[in-house]
Amino acid sequence: MVYSYATRCVSKAAVAEHLSVGCLFGACTTLSTANKMVIESDLNTSNTLTAYPNPISKQTRVSFKLARYEARVSLDLYDVKGAKIKTIYSRGAKGNTTYSFIVDGKSIAAGSYFFRLAARNKLKIYKIM
Q1: What is the per-residue pLDDT across 55-71, written as a single tens digit (0 to 9) for each?
Q2: Which residues have a Cβ under 8 Å from the Cβ of 49 and sit 6 or more positions away?
Q3: What is the pTM of this model?
């Protein structure tokens, strides 16, 4: 799993909005930011990617859910060498909506594979055997 963090100062008036999307707060470190707070946002905390059954079988269901709308999302299947086997989804995705797909495993050789979900600067990887 890859985590992305953004650290920035925000005004105290914006704290509630940032907390509502899962941001973590610390303290600003310079005097010029006395009325602001630092946020570190783990961009992947609210996003999910699951696949079952694992190991891959005749039909494997892969699902993802994002915390907020993303204009461009891609869900791909890769082999262990990093070669893309198949694009499963490549479009926009609504926030807090589960997207679910059946992957036909009959045409895939036994082995280890990775589902890779990418959206802007967010990335999740799910290993299946």
Answers
A1: 788 888 999 999 889 99
A2: 62, 63, 64, 75, 115, 117, 124, 125, 126
A3: 0.63
